[in-house]
Write a structure and sequence with these properties.
430 residues, alpha/beta, Rossmann fold, 2 domains, six-stranded parallel beta sheet, 19 helices, 12 strands, 11% strand, globular
Length: 430
């Protein structure tokens, strides 16, 4: 990917907002995400600045958990590794096994039924991760007042309000100090997360580093945004990318201090066991859809018709959030006369002959698993250098295009010893 625009973008960003960073370094931790997030994404995050009522229950619960956490000071605790990797169960399972070998306490996600956390682990998770930071940060009357003002005045007016920004700067600093003390009390050794950019994760990341623990990010998706929004600057101790190509591309634009933080340790997901083509009863085309909220989703009857003319059975995989509304499933089925997947992407990949989309991390995942995966020209809205293009009228020769692409691009299937690499991440001090 071409990330060269990032250099100018980040230089202009800090040039524009440097005076705020100089005066309010902690407050700007909260605002960085909203300033840099793409316009089309801002509305999804705006709720953070639009608090409607004060949540007294969370306020009381947090005070209770802070009190209970003091118990851990009296008990010698094993080092803890906290994992919040819902998209990377493969890495998570290896992390759990390595912690067991080392005698560390593994603290995973509470909604994972295979985890049976003890009392101290429960306290750890309740303190640090069970409530979204947007809630815990706001569960005091003074934060309620401050963020009500932000919602009322708007972002720029808030940044220029010295009185409000000074108070917010103090409150965020105190929040980081409090989080870091809790991390030290429960002996957190390292944290594995999927990001360090949203306000919640930024504060958590800074707290972990202040406690002299390690904060390690597994890139939540394949990086395609030219401004590296959601990934850079690298605030974490380490950023793990999906393949060697991403490591090389980031190294071209990041400063030396951040290049040292970016690592490739191996493919972060479990490989799919594909059904051999000669054992399939039909040819399946899997189409990955953009969120339906976008005005132009680019899926058309002509695309479906051409796929069917080439003897493909067509299945659509909607964006995860679109499955929450049943009418969306009905809409796709009735308009395009195709199946809508109710299975996971990995399950659909097992017997897919071709995967098509506009832009998606899942296309890279398909290629990594040996499934011909393409950006369909008629749907494409962003170039992915690491994924081949195809036009709908070229579908009949899709496999030869796929083979030629794989021959020319050797960054797929770079096998490493993932167990060894994860072990090194936990063991190394730098």
């Amino acid at each position: 990917m071409n990330f060269k625009p990032y250099k100018d973008h980040i230089e202009n960003y800090y040039k524009t907002y440097s005076r705020y960073y100089d005066k309010y370094p902690y407050a700007m931790i909260i605002f960085e995400w909203f300033i840099r997030v793409p316009d089309e994404e801002y509305s999804k995050s705006k709720h953070f600045l639009d608090l409607k009522k004060f949540n007294y229950k969370l306020y009381i619960l947090r005070k209770l958990f802070n009190f209970i956490s003091l118990i851990s000071i009296l008990v010698k605790s094993k080092p803890k590794v906290i994992s919040n990797l819902p998209r990377f169960s493969f890495i998570d399972s290896k992390l759990r096994a390595i912690c067991q070998e080392k005698g560390y306490t593994y603290s995973g996600r509470l909604n994972n039924t295979s985890d049976k956390p003890g009392f101290k682990t429960l306290i750890c998770l309740l303190l640090l991760k069970r409530f979204p930071f947007e809630d815990t940060l706001l569960c005091s009357i003074r934060f309620y007042y401050l963020f009500s003002k932000i919602a009322e005045d708007g972002l720029q007016k808030t940044l220029d309000n010295d009185s409000l920004m000074n108070r917010l700067n103090i409150y965020v600093k105190n929040e980081i100090d409090a989080y870091s003390r809790n991390l030290e009390r429960i002996n957190v050794h390292s944290v594995f997360s999927q990001g360090d950019k949203t306000p919640r994760l930024r504060v958590f990341c800074e707290s972990v580093k202040k406690a002299q623990s390690k904060y390690i990010v597994i890139a939540h998706g394949y990086i395609v945004h030219p401004h590296l929004v959601s990934f850079c600057p690298v605030h974490a101790d380490k950023l793990i990318v999906w393949n060697v190509k991403q490591l090389e591309d980031l190294s071209d634009v990041l400063p030396d201090s951040e290049i040292a933080k970016v690592l490739y340790i191996g493919w972060p997901k479990e490989k799919v066991n594909l059904v051999p083509p000669d054992q399939r009863d039909y040819r399946k085309a899997l189409i990955l859809l953009r969120p339906l909220e976008y005005e132009n989703n680019n899926l058309s009857e002509s695309i479906i018709e051409e796929l069917k003319n080439n003897k493909f059975s067509v299945t659509a995989k909607m964006h995860p959030k679109d499955y929450k509304i049943k009418e969306n499933i009905r809409y796709i089925k009735e308009k395009f006369k195709i199946d809508v997947s109710a299975s996971s992407y990995e399950e659909e990949l097992i017997d897919s002959d071709i995967v098509l989309s506009c832009v998606s991390s899942a296309l890279v995942e398909g290629l990594e698993n040996g499934v011909p995966s393409f950006q369909l020209e008629e749907m494409k809205w962003w170039d992915m250098d690491e994924v081949p293009d195809i036009s709908i009228n070229e579908i009949s020769r899709y496999y030869s295009k796929y083979e030629n692409f794989i021959k020319e691009n050797h960054f797929f299937n770079n096998d490493t010893d993932l167990n060894k690499e994860i072990n090194n991440l936990i063991s190394n001090d730098n």
